[in-house]
Known about the structure:
Elements: H1 9-24, H2 30-35, E1 43-47, E2 51-57, E3 66-71, E4 74-81, E5 100-107, E6 118-122, E7 125-131, E8 141-143
Antiparallel strand pairs: 1-2, 2-7, 3-4, 3-8, 4-5, 6-7
Amino acid sequence: xxxxxxxxxxxxxxxxxxxxxxxxxxxxxxxxxxxxxxxxxxxxxxxxxxxxxxxxxxxxxxxxxxxxxxxxxxxxxxxxxxxxxxxxxxxxxxxxxxxxxxxxxxxxxxxxxxxxxxxxxxxxxxxxxxxxxxxxxxxxxxxxxxx
Length: 147
């Protein structure tokens, strides 16, 4: 008797994307590099006439746990959501909230002025604003500070 499995191209694409995220994560913090990203936050990318805006859902992540960098023409957002402290007698009945390391990396759609980049973190939503520019800012790695 032969069992047929239904092909789900979306599931295959998502699995492939997760594998790519794991490969890209090799250059992140040492602790997270050993285990690879365990989840990926949702990100909206918007373009206005003056800037590129990235909105990242990061509920439960402290802003000190978030690292934002522009490396050449790539935006890299990484960090970690810790496992909450639970009473020793607690037992989970269901676990859906992801914890551990995360990293998302994006090719910037155009030239940006990293010197004027801004990042804010309010109510679990990280917003990164990268103003458009005629030329790239300083070469190398630029860290975008939350503020």
